Amino acid sequence: MTNWAEKFRMAGVYLFLGVMAFVSIFPFAWMVISSTNASVDVTKGKFTFGSAFLQNLEKLNKTFDVAQVFWNSGKIAIIGGFFTLVISSMAGYGFEVFSSKARERVYNGLLLTLMVPFAALMIPLFILMAKFDLLDTHLAVILPALASAYIIFYFRQSTKAFPPELREAARLDGLKEWQIFLFVYVPVMRSTYAAAFIIVFMAAWNNFLWPLIVLQSPELKTITLVLSSLGSAYFPDFGVIMLAAMLATLPTLVVFFAMQRQFVQGMLGSVK
Amino acid sequence: MAPKPTTSYRRFYDVNGWLFVSIALGLIGVFMAFPIVHSLWMSLHAGQGTVVEFVGVGNIVRLASDPVFLKALQNTCIFLVIQVPIMLLLALVMASCLNMPNLRFRGLLRTAVFLPCVTSLVAYSVVFKSMFSYDGLVNHALAWLGLIAEPIPWLNDPFWSKVVIIIAITWRWTGYNMIFYLAAMQNIDKSIYEAARIDGISAYRRFVSITIPNLKPVILFTTVTSTIGTLQLFDEPMNITTVGTVFSDNTLTLSMYIYNLSFKFVPNFGYAATVSYVIVLLVAALAAIQFYAARERN
């Protein structure tokens, strides 16, 4: 292959990736810029920063309590995420370390539930929550996500890298099984937990359909619900919507940039 | 591993094994297994609200002549058949570009194309809704470039509204799939490529004969997960093409129809459960076909 043909090909690659990168980033830029503009300017396609940011924030705060909504979403994502990790990591550890024929069968059944779409669950889950008298509570949002077959799978795969010698040594030292798990396994697997937490946190923070079904009271609503209701107004205020979209994206963006490696590692946990 | 287990050792082993997995199993039983069975039972019943009667296969019969269901099924299938192949191909090409050994700004480009994955579906949906509105940014840009004389009614037109949904999902998920491909490509032994290069095999042939066969399990994985995702499409059509609280027929999906049947109209949980089982069966059938196809070619 001649040298300039190779150069030509690389130019094509850079052009392709450049366009893709531009298309990927553009909506973010548009969102940030539009959040500082009034609705009329947003629809006009004004692509420079404006001075309406504070007005937008004021309007947004008038429609709903920004701090309260953030608190609701954060509470669900952090508390739900914490317990999901506790429960799923115990299960993943149990399935891997205490593997037996019976549990192997149960585990395979568990993986099968990954194929069941949420649409098939939402009506019976709704009826179940009504029976438990949990409708319109944050607990109803958190509960169904607690035992995640996906995260159990992730922890089981990661546990394969946990050295059995550590467990044997701890056992010889007279530690009980739960002590081995808590004082040996958990500290050793810190980065596994970090990766899983990001995945679980983002899923809960971004969840929409299930909170939409169970949450009614305005003071319980999460950021995605509020954003959706702003967006579906007959006369949408685009400046305010863009500001709300930015606020909804900000936490996940921060988490992503702070822990990019763990995030990708967590995602890939399912194919290794 | 361990020496041949004695009875007491086996009991200890078993008790601890079940203890560790019990909480998760209990929760999955209550919030997953029970609802699956319950909805199957519900799908044999029909009625309004809490007044239900046994109808057997009556709901299935009703499906066949329900124009709204058929519309939703058609829309969902259009999204599936057009969007998934476009997205996976794009992800594959992007990954192989990013995998080139002499590429500069690799980290920067990778982060950029991966960024959409961290936004919430609702947040990017409302951003896309504003960009594609009748007097929005996209129409302004196209007019400025001289490509259109009249603004395109992106969100109301039966054809263009589907195009917007397809563009939106592709924007959100291509980078996600790309990461799986990229990770798998980095696990392929570099010396195979070197040998092929020395033998004078073209880049295109290297891609088809080395990269693709090595990526088969990952391609299967992304195809199955993308299929499951698209069959459940809800957030995007709900937040992009819906005006007020009226779902647009042009982009109505099966999940939206289930939502309507359960929580918007007078609730008919039985019929909604039947529609939800259509999704379950589609997921199962398509996944089975994809697994079968992947095995055949091996």
TrEMBL record, chain A:
Keyword terms of this UniProt record: Cell membrane, Membrane, Transmembrane, Transmembrane helix, Transport
The protein's name in its UniProt record: Carbohydrate ABC transporter permease
Pfam families: BPD_transp_1
Organism phylogeny: Bacteria, Pseudomonadati, Pseudomonadota, Betaproteobacteria, Burkholderiales
Similarity comment: family membership: Belongs to the binding-protein-dependent transport system permease family.
CDD domains: TM_PBP2
PROSITE patterns found in the cross-reference section: ABC_TM1
Membrane topology designation: Multi-pass membrane protein
Principal localisation: membrane
Organism: Rhodoferax mekongensis
Residue intervals of the ABC transmembrane type-1 domain: 70-259
The keyword Amino-acid biosynthesis appears for this protein: no
Localization in the cell: Cell membrane
This protein's record includes keyword NAD: no
TrEMBL record, chain B:
Family the entry assigns: Belongs to the binding-protein-dependent transport system permease family.
Cellular location(s): Cell membrane
Keywords tagged on the record: Cell membrane, Membrane, Transmembrane, Transmembrane helix, Transport
Transmembrane parts of this sequence: 12-34, 72-95, 107-127, 163-184, 215-234, 269-293
Protein's name according to its UniProt entry: Sugar ABC transporter permease
Family matches, as Pfam families: BPD_transp_1 (PF00528)
PANTHER family: ABC TRANSPORTER PERMEASE PROTEIN, INNER MEMBRANE ABC TRANSPORTER PERMEASE PROTEIN YCJO
This protein's record includes keyword Transmembrane: yes
Segments forming domain ABC transmembrane type-1: 73-290
Domain of life: Bacteria
Stored InterPro entries: ABC_transporter_permease, MetI-like, MetI-like_sf
Topology of the protein relative to the lipid bilayer: Multi-pass membrane protein
Keyword set includes Signal: no
